Amino acid sequence: MKPDEVLQRLLATRPSESQVAEAAARARRRALERIDAPWRAAPRAWRWPVLAAAATLAACATLLLWHGGELPAPVPAAPSVVGRAAEPPMKVILTLADGTRVIWTIDGNLSL
Amino acid sequence: MNQVLLIAENSGAAPGDPLEELIRTAVAGDRAALEDVLLAVERRVYLFAWRLIGNPTAAEDITQEVLLKLAGNLARYRPGTHLWAWIYRIVVNQVHDYRRSARIEPEVTPQVRAYDPGREEQLRRVEEALAILTSKEREAVILLDVEGYSSPEAAALLGTLAITVRTRAAHARMKLRRHLSRYYPELEERR
Questions:
Q1: Which of A25, B122, B131, B137 reaches 20 to 30 Å from A12, CA-CA?
Q2: Least CB-CB distance to A3: which of B42, B71, B177?
Q3: What's the gap in Å between the CA of B1 and the closest CA on chain A?
Q4: A28 and chain B: CB distance < 8 Å anywhere?
Q5: Could you tell me the pTM of the whole model?
C-alpha cells in the first residue's frame, strides 16, 4: 500500500458508531429545544461565564446590603473659641462717582 | 454559497430523493418533517465537525449550532443542488466561529477508551498529528482525503482557489506523514 493510502486509512479512523449516534442525537435534541424555546439550552460554552457573572453580581449585591445599614447622623464639631486671637476689623471702601470715599468698618461681631 | 451550488450542480440529489422531499415538507411548516431532516443529517454533521475540531464535546456543540442554522435556513436550499456541500459549508463556518470563541483541547472519547483500546490509541495518534496542522491545512486534507471532495469542490466550499486547497493538503500530508511515521513506518517513502 502506498504511503498516501496508508495515511488516508489512518485519517478515516473514527469514533464508534454508538458514540457518534449518541452525541449527534444529543445535539439534535438541544437544537430542537432551542427551536421550541429560544431562551433555553444555551450553548455549553456560554453557561459558565453567565453563571460566573450572576454569582459576582449576587456577591456584590450582598455586600452592598450588608454595609448599607443606616449610619448615625454626624455631629458637627463645635467651633473652639478659647485662645482664639481677636480678629482685625474688616474694612469696606466705597468710592462714589464724585470721588467721595465711604469707609465701612465691620468688627468681629459684624457690627458696622 | 452560489459558487458551491454551481460547482456541485452536476452531482446534485436526484429528483424524488427522500431527503429532498422531507426538506420540501419541512419548509412548508411540517414539524415532524423538520425533525426527520435533522435526524437524517446529524451523524454526518457530527463526524465532519469532529474531524475538523478534534474534540467530541466541541463537535457536539458545533453540531447543535449547525442543526439550528439548517432548521432556520432550509428555505434557502435549492432542490436538485448539492445539499451536502451546502451543509458542510455551514459546518466549516461554525467551526471557524467556535475556534475564535473557545480554547480547544484534543480529546479522545472515554467510551472508546473503555471498550476499544486499539482504536483509542490510533485515534489518539491521529488526533495528535492533526493538532499540529493549521486549521486551513486540516480542512483541506479532511475534505480531500477523508470526505472525498475534488479540489474545485473543496475550494468552493472553503471560499478559496483549488490550487490553494491542493497546496494546503500537500503540506498537511507531509506534516502528518512525518509525525505518524514513528508509529507507522509504512508511511515513509521507499526510495
A1: A25
A2: B177
A3: 23
A4: yes
A5: 0.68
